[in-house]
Amino acid sequence: MTINISIFDTTLRDGTQGEGISLSAEDKLKIAAKLDALGVHYIEGGNPGSNSKDIEFFQRVKQLGLSAKITAFGSTRRKNSVAEHDTSLMRIAESGVKAATLVGKSWDFHVHTALQTTLEENLSMIYDSIAFLKRNGMEALFDAEHFFDGYKNNPEYALAVLRKAQDAGADWIVLCDTNGGTMPGEIHDIVTRVRSELTADIGIHTHNDCELAVANSLAAVQAGARQVQGTINGYGERCGNANLCSIIPNLQLKLGYNVLGDDQLKTLTGTARYISEIANVHMPVGQAYVGNAAFAHKGGIHVSAILKDSKTYEHIQPELIGNKQRILVSELAGQSNIVSKAQEMGLDVNANNEKTKQIIDRIKELEHQGYQFEGADASMELLLREAFDGTKEAFKVESFKMLVDRGNGSMVSEAIVKLNVDGTPVYTAAEGNGPVNALDNALRKALLPFYPKIDEFHLADYKVRVLDEKGATAAKVRVLIESAGPDNTWSTVGVSSNVIEASWEALVDSFRYALLHMDKVDVVPADQSERVGLVNQ
Amino acid sequence: MTINISIFDTTLRDGTQGEGISLSAEDKLKIAAKLDALGVHYIEGGNPGSNSKDIEFFQRVKQLGLSAKITAFGSTRRKNSVAEHDTSLMRIAESGVKAATLVGKSWDFHVHTALQTTLEENLSMIYDSIAFLKRNGMEALFDAEHFFDGYKNNPEYALAVLRKAQDAGADWIVLCDTNGGTMPGEIHDIVTRVRSELTADIGIHTHNDCELAVANSLAAVQAGARQVQGTINGYGERCGNANLCSIIPNLQLKLGYNVLGDDQLKTLTGTARYISEIANVHMPVGQAYVGNAAFAHKGGIHVSAILKDSKTYEHIQPELIGNKQRILVSELAGQSNIVSKAQEMGLDVNANNEKTKQIIDRIKELEHQGYQFEGADASMELLLREAFDGTKEAFKVESFKMLVDRGNGSMVSEAIVKLNVDGTPVYTAAEGNGPVNALDNALRKALLPFYPKIDEFHLADYKVRVLDEKGATAAKVRVLIESAGPDNTWSTVGVSSNVIEASWEALVDSFRYALLHMDKVDVVPADQSERVGLVNQ
């Protein structure tokens, strides 16, 4: 009989403790919807009492109608107090979620040192807090913090903590390797012991400080744990949490557990990449299973063997988890993607048509140069519209100049742009607090007379990545710009060895995309002096 | 009795199969010296017959007088041929190294599909090739490619392969999980079986396709393997090789094996970071043990507990592996570092002196802003010399301007610099194929009349990193520039939200550092028109 494993995702809570990760309420909602489509069973949203972002998240997530259980996070009640009066517990009960995780101490050393209370009071804190959730009709998960360190130091007390949570009605008892220092063999032995002592379902929550979080999660499951807590891409404090993108396929494809549906598993790679984009954390090319190089082959012998039989150098079929083999230049999943995308846009596209082949070749060539359209839908749409729809560029760039000037310690960035808007020449300049800001200001100033609504959108995010860090001053960079209008956002891309040019490309695409959906005002062409007067006002 | 584990580093061979990693012979020599100081037992240098870089490496590495055994890598002889006439084996014998690793097939499927020969001929190929090494007086390591897949498919044949290598005199039989698809439990069981069948010493070589390479290496050691093959930072094809930076401390600090000396272990973090700089691969902040965030604490509760007792949230003392706790802003190991560095430079520096405290505060402040002096020794030296030595800047920057101009599809980058060289004003301009190249050309042109030897150095490497990818167009970047003279190299750093300004800072530091060691020529001050004529020639 196949054993079911429950996946508890804490990307939105523990994942955001990772250095450099900061998610808005909007980001969290997008991620929650994506996780739900992947099929995780629990989505930990955060602490509903801790900050305004989390409060907003819990209010809005109800409207998404997700299948996964949204859970709130908090601690056991404060020492020497009453659960009913604990502000944090009250907020959880009022948040409207049906399940919550409470973290409590299971290492006697921590009870003394960090909590500074008695072992007995800690047990009461756990009992009272879990019982409070149950009285409020909620599913209760108990996170036993530092359980493995606690067990090694004082097994009887650590087990007493778990029994207390069980007695209070905890639905899941989750064993946490909070410092990430435990070895897989110890995890296996200790989980086996816990299983023999408890009747409640056991979960495992590990950290990657020894690069063993995945192995430790598997060891716990093999010893009887039935829930795995982790994050997408292993985000989390210090070295991160257990990486669900590796744990899920290992459990399902290698060890025969039942975790997700086969179709859901195929969305794993897309989910990982989408969330890395939202979190704006560079995904290592070599990330297991879902990385861009996870099934990439460059060695000559490997490639010739792969072409004979892909099993020779691939441990699974990459398609099972939505990744793909890479040998040749082509990065794109294939022309069927492009055709279906164009058809979505209402364009008359046919896979066998010569023009389609040309645009596919063009996109492959651009991806080879370093463009990446997965994160730049708007640039892709412009390419397709111009090829198939005869969509005209909203404006033509005649030239641009960028001046960076440092004198007397102050920096000035100035941009000069020369455009042609439907036959009307426009030539203007603007300053900014940096080169890209100046270019943005100049473009905006030039186009405002024609598109008075241009002020309704702005640049929301700007990212630079060096594609090939070698190559001294000729290193290529990719710039991604995210823009936001009143009710939508779009992303555009530019690539060049000149960072100013790459930024300019992405910026121009962003404006062109915005103007596609904006009414143009007729500005009467005038002589050049007058035009300069107009746009320089 | 403590068990010794032999560490076989293949960063220079298998590590260079990683996407985006390319090492010059010079890079490889620097890395070999660093690995030797760390105390690894074997350093695999590459394939002495495969390319000119590796040939140069094997010639020059002998002069370094390293303690580690340098090993060459190759395959078993070609099918239906004689080892003595195999060019690749001959090159290994002639390379002058005392040990070599030969890879051979142990998966019957591969013998048929990839090698396209008989199982019997494959056994002969292995026997002949290992025997050839032994006849040449070399230590012989046999890498059994795909051993675990082979064993699962045909255990008898896979074991026969190992016995053949053993019979031919192999000193080490290394079991390879080439596709990285094996689970830790399988590794443990199969290594246990192999140990019961063989007398030769066993090694383990794993890949990280399931994010289990570290766990699999440990499982093999716990089952009796006595050598671990891996790479620094886990570099390698697809998802990488087993990461020695995690395996070594896990074996030594967690599982009680004897691997390196305690003092050597303290160089682990420095070694990992140095090699990531040479390989120019960004080290993830969250990398286990050696990452910059591996012992970083930001949660309020964690920090207060850490301050009570660091054991509360740290699984080991970070100093054991040369890393450090990070709570506060200060990134620098401490003032003792700065004082000893200044003393190395012959500066009269005292830790208790007010000026020393000021410069330490200044460096901490700069590091907080994103400067990183570990990778920019020359910028650090300039700071110290200017503070303690009264070293004057070789030139003063009055102003610079950078013009990027795109018209008619072509990009022009132009730089205008205004300097003051010992009272002489210089004002000049130059073009380049990108903004940084133009700034470099302009500086060079301005300084050449004063420092005719300025042509003896050039920019060797240029790196940009976005420090805080959020923050739209105001994202901060760090630029690192490596410069090379006739017999030395130096690195400098600049940080700004304006990439042009950050590049300029690093460039100016590079020139200042170079000029410290160059004779200045007296250029007679002339009126401004004449000077302009001079420098614009």
Structure commentary:
Chains A, B: It catalyses: pyruvate + acetyl-CoA + H2O = (3R)-citramalate + CoA + H(+). Chains A, B: Its EC number is 2.3.3.21. Chains A, B: This is Citramalate synthase. The structure is a homodimer of 537-residue chains. Chain A has helices at 25-38, 52-61, 87-94, 108-115, 119-135, 147-153, 155-167, 184-197, 213-222, 244-254, 262-265, 268-279, 300-308, 335-344, 354-369, 377-388, 435-447, 499-516, 528-535; strands at residues 6-9, 42-46, 69-75, 99-105, 139-145, 172-177, 201-206, 227-230, 396-407, 410-421, 424-432, 458-466, 477-484, 489-496. Chain A is of the alpha/beta class. An 8-stranded parallel barrel of chain A has the order 1-2-3-4-5-6-7-8, surrounded by 10 helices. In chain A, strands 9-10-11 form a 3-stranded antiparallel sheet. Chain A folds into 2 domains: 6-261, TIM Barrel (Alpha-Beta Barrel), CATH 3.20.20.70; 396-535, Alpha-isopropylmalate synthase LeuA, regulatory domain (Double Stranded RNA Binding Domain, 2-Layer Sandwich), CATH 3.30.160. In chain A, α1 packs across α2 (52-61), α5 runs parallel beside α7 (155-167) and α16 (377-388) crosses α18 (499-516). The model of chain A is unreliable at 328-334 and 526-537 (pLDDT under 50). β9 (396-407) of chain A pairs antiparallel with β9 of chain B, so a sheet runs across the interface.
In short:
2 copies of one chain form a homodimer. By secondary structure, chain A is α/β, with parallel strands linked by helices.
| Quaternary organization | homodimer
CATH superfamily of the largest domain in chain A: Aldolase class I
Biggest sheet features of chain A:
8 strands, parallel, barrel
Q: What is the overall silhouette of chain A? A: globular
Average of the residue pLDDT scores of chain A: 87
Domain Pyruvate carboxyltransferase (chains A, B): 5-269
Enzyme class (chains A, B): transferase
Family (chains A, B): Belongs to the alpha-IPM synthase/homocitrate synthase family.
Pathway (chains A, B): Amino-acid biosynthesis; L-isoleucine biosynthesis; 2-oxobutanoate from pyruvate: step 1/3
